[in-house]
Amino acid sequence: KHMTKQEAMNCGKQLLLMFSDNRLHDSPFDLHLCNADSKSICMTHLTKFIPTLYDPDFPLNISDKSYLDIFPREKIVYLTPHCREVLTEFDHDVVYVIGAMVDKANNEPLSLAKAKRQGLKMAKLPLDNYLSWGSGGSKSLTLNQMMRILLEVRTSGDWNKAFQHIPQRKVANYKKEGNKNMRHIRRY
To answer: How far apart are CA 158 and CA 89, in angstroms?
Structure first.
């Protein structure tokens, strides 16, 4: 409800890319799309890309239920860039929630407000600890960039490697934790 039609369509495309990146990974997440309204612009657009999305054997869990109805509240960590708590290590016992919202026009901390209302633990990626943002780069990340980062940090535990999934145009260079020396991002 907070996205324009174009943003909702863009969200559908990002969900496609996120699903694809996850599916191609050696150790994919068990993804759940929660609060998914099959009649919404976002989900209708996603279904155009993946016509078999709602088939029973499709490898994605889609529900119109809230994540609060599916997972124990104490296991949930809502990832939001607006909170103070920094995620330092990936916890394999936690259910990480990524809000599927494209909000180019809206800068309100909607995900933070939602997580607070629901009484959930929150965290943000340690972007500022590892990256120096370029002058034209915004700190917003797409859903598929978030997926790549989380897949990498879950597998390797290395934030430097994980943040190589952020487009170079957004960052000037990165710094190692505790080190003031700046180095250019290496691409593998």
So the answer is: 9
pLDDT in tens, 33-75: 999 999 999 999 999 999 999 999 999 999 999 999 999 999 9
Enzyme catalytic residues: 103
Phi, psi of 46 (to 5 degrees): -60, -40
User: Which helix (H) or strand (E) element contains residue 133?
Assistant: strand 131-133
Tokens of 100: 């599927």
pTM for this prediction: 0.84
CB 1 within 8 A of CB 30: no
- CA dist 6 and 113 (Å) reads 23
DSSP secondary structure of 19-78:
HHHHHHSSS----EE-S--TTSHHHHHHHHH-TTTTSTTSSSEE-SS-HHHHS-GGGEEE
Structure-token match 């943003």, residue found: 7
- Give how far the C-alpha of residue 111 lies from the chain's centroid of Cα atoms, to the nearest Å: 12
Alpha-carbon distances of 6 from 117, 121, 144, 146, rounded to whole Å = 27, 31, 18, 20
Q: How far apart are CA 33 and CA 55, in angstroms?
A: 14
